[in-house]
Amino acid sequence: MKKIIPLLMAVYFTVGIASGQNLLQNGNFNGSLTGTWNTWTYGGGWVGPTTTPADEFDGTACVYMGGNDAAGAGLNQIVFGLPNVPYTISCDSAVNNWWWPAEEMRLFFLDGNDVILASSVTNCAAGITAYDVGTPWSNYTMTATSPAGTVKVKVEFACPAGHGTIRFDNAVL
Asked: Is 70 helix (H, G, I), strand (E, B) or coil?
């Protein structure tokens, strides 16, 4: 039985990848984050879903996160993965126009012991060049190929530092 489960998972995720299915659960952040996304904060950071119309991208809920001095927040989800596969993550993202937060979309490739084998990060706030300047909703896409030994892919959206609030919506892996 121990050998059958990994084989079935490999078949399932190979079919999912080949058919273009979203491997993420609740990637549109329209439901509760509980049970699908793991959230984290430090130093008084914040993270959660919002239904504030002014913050929404497409008229549905999105997720927001941020922090003040020495604070940050984020959320992640881990899915089963395969080695030597190109994984593409995309999302819509925006930054509120106060201060200057960091805004990152991350992919981590993990082995069976959750050791990070490789990672890739996109700074979605790279267009900010001054304080109190936000960014409008834009689509961001990043592709990275999983290294040998990959059995899990961790997708993370984060505001790891800086002042401000960022938003993500419509995440697809």
From this structure: coil
Q: Which residues have a Cβ under 8 Å from the Cβ of 46 and sit 6 or more positions away? A: 64, 65, 66, 67, 73, 165
d(CA 138, CA 74): 19
Give me the phi and psi of 62, to 5 degrees please. Answer: -135, 180
Question: Token digits for 102?
Answer: 């960091």
> Which residues is 25 bridged to in the sheet?
none
DSSP 126: T
Q: Is 83 exposed, middle or buried (0-12, 13-18, 19+ CB in 10 A)?
A: middle
State how beta strands 86-95 and 152-159 pair: unpaired
- CA–CA separation, 166 and 173 (whole Å): 20
pLDDT tens string, the chain, 173 residues long: the values are 555 444 444 444 444 444 579 999 999 998 889 889 999 999 999 999 987 887 888 888 999 999 888 899 999 999 999 999 999 999 999 988 777 788 899 999 999 999 999 999 998 887 777 777 778 899 999 999 999 999 999 999 999 887 888 999 999 99
Query: With contact defined as beta carbons under 8 Å apart, do 110 and 150 qualify?
Result: yes
Report residue 78 CA to chain centroid gap.
Answer: 10
The amino acid that residue 101 corresponds to is P
Per-residue tokens: 56? 């929404």
